[in-house]
Amino acid sequence: MVLCSGGLDSCVTLALAMESHEPAVLHATYGQRTAARERRAFEEIADHFGIPPARRRVLELSFLGALGGSALTDPSIPVPRTAPGGGIPVTYVPFRNAHLLAAAVSWAELLVAPAVFIGAVEEDGSGYPDCRESFLRAFERAACEGTSPRFTPRIEAPLVHRTKAEIVRLGIELGAPLHLTWSCYEAGDEACGACESCRLRLAGFRAAGVEDPIRYAT
User: How many C-beta atoms surround the C-beta of residue 51 within 10 A?
Assistant: First the structure.
């Protein structure tokens, strides 16, 4: 089971999982600004890897957007164009990864899939508490407690301690379709190049010595 947002990290995570598994993929919309563009990226990445429709699910978690409180889901909160300061940034969607993982574990239990892969990365978590390895290990323990005794799910986060440059290089090594991925927090046609996610992505490609294959407005 691989959580796939359509972004760079989840695409490389899926490429890693494909090396030894025939995974199912799970995508979620939750009221984020770029939901339609992320959905397109997810479908194109799944097509690239030949994942059949029976092993794809798209879930609607609109309650996260309805709750508000994040620049990703509330249009009245501007997406920052500067590096975040200390603390948790305004782009954090409260407890989002817990909801995504819970949905993935539910489907994994039905399919008897032994592992759930997530592209969480501590380096570019920007202070997001649900990207930390300690959170992922705690969630794994909770998942094992709350599922059938015959089902002991593992939470796999193979990129959690990698830099963005290392992720780019790994993706290229694996032949991952990085040109299909979408990372921008704000735009749906050309990536803005200015939001935190775009800047982290661009810096990773520069550090890896590789040109980013997607188009930017700036």
Answer: 20
Distance between CA 70 and CA 83 in Å, rounded?
16
Nearest to 11 by CA among 139, 131, 158: 158
Question: CATH number of the domain that 60 lies in?
Answer: 3.40.50.620
Contact 155, 118 (CB under 8 A): yes
Helices (H), the chain: 8-18, 35-48, 62-67, 96-111, 133-146, 164-174, 196-208
Find, among 23, 21, 29, 22, the residue nearest to 1 by Cα.
23
What are the backbone angles phi and psi of residue 135, rounded to the nearest 5°?
A: -65, -45
Which residue range forms the structural domain that includes residue 96? 2-208
The pTM of this model reads 0.96
Total domain count, the chain: 1
Structural domain contains residue 46: yes
Q: Is residue 215 part of a domain?
A: no
Residue 213 in domain:
no
112-142 tens-digit pLDDT: 999 999 999 997 656 799 999 999 999 999 9
- pLDDT on residue 188: 86
Residue 214 counted as domain residue: no
- The sign of the dihedral angle between the CA atoms of 44, 46, 51, 52 is negative
Residue type, 173: E
Closest by alpha carbon to 15, among 200, 181, 214? Answer: 181
